[in-house]
Amino acid sequence: MPDELFDLKAGYVNFKNPIALAPMGGITDSDFANKHAADAGLVILGGYNLDEKTQSAASDMIARGREEFIAEDPFKFIEQEIMAVSTGAAVAVNVRSTSIGPLLKAAAIAKDAGAILELDAHCRQEEMTSIGTGQALLYNIPLLTELIKKIKGTGVVLSVKVRGNVVDDLQLTREIESAGADILHLDAMMEGAGADLKLIMSIRDSTRMFLICNNSVTDPGTAKDMFSRGADMVSVARGVLENPALISHLVKNVTILHEDMGWYNAPKHVCRGEGDLRGLTFCCLPVKQCPVHGKIKTLGLTAQEFVDIKMEFAKGTILEYGDSTCFGSLVWCCKISKPCFLRDGVLETLGLSDAEYMRLKKELADHILENVKPR
After folding, report:
1. What is the pTM of this model?
2. Cα 157 to the center of its chain, rounded Å
3. For residue 2, is pLDDT > 70?
4. In the predicted model, what is the mean pLDDT of residues 1-8?
5. Is-contact 117 150, C-beta < 8 A?
6. In the structure, how many helices (H) and strands (E) does the chain have?
7. Which of the listed residues 261, 283, 317 is the one where a domain comes to its end?
8. Which residues of 107-143 are buried (b: 16+ CB within 10 A; e: fewer)?
């Protein structure tokens, strides 16, 4: 499978596909990644504890039966672990520290290795939160944003892993993006079971950061649910322990989908109330009451301005054609997965494949969002 099939990147890092191995303390090291994530586009090692306080907290966690990483020289260990990943995947290291110095040192190591540094604002174990790391950072936004700004000063590609439904998620996302992070790694946890898909959609609508989503990804269906709400990538954790072949299965499935459909994380339709802002690419002419008007308003557009943006993009492209469709142009036509003999007849006449049509629709979605910014 060619690495350029998905054309996914964050800063200087390229991903061969949108499936990641998530960090699991005491579990996700290079040996585990090489064995269980040979096909992944990204492996996130760790979490690694960088300073005396986090190492001590990890020791306490191990004493009560949890698995954690402890190293005499965590920086040498991180460097060795990055280089030991032999799968061809991009590599990230998830880290914790109670002070900035060790984070900057780890960032320099990651950058030199062409890897990503991931700041852990996710761990909810009391030993870590009581010393101000992990999920405690979600309650201390000034400190979190200060850490992000200083880490980004090293030039490293930075991911921030957070747990959803803990604080005001949209405000948190805006602060993390404004501080300069490249990637948001969201554990879309909600009470009960499964991932909070509405949260994923809301966060997708509020940020342009590369978005990795996590929680209960156990099969292609659960991954597709996240992709269709705006995830650029999904990460897998405990599911790999239960099914060692899970990542390979997910990669195979999403690759076939992308080859056939042309847009692996195409959004749902806005009119169903499930589509994120990218779904505006599939919306018909806004001439009746429909959720499209709420999405347009979110972008600060009038209905006419929205029409003008779409028609401007269509000029000179195949989307301009389609006199026999509902609104006279393919630019107003829906997702290829929705049956429509009018649209399909035009595509057949033009010799345009489903994948080519969807790639044009993705370009249109990008065009809409590049020309307006959500309030």
Report:
1. 0.96
2. 14
3. no
4. 73
5. no
6. 15, 10
7. 261
8. bbbbbebebbbbbbbbbebebbbebbbbbbbbeebee
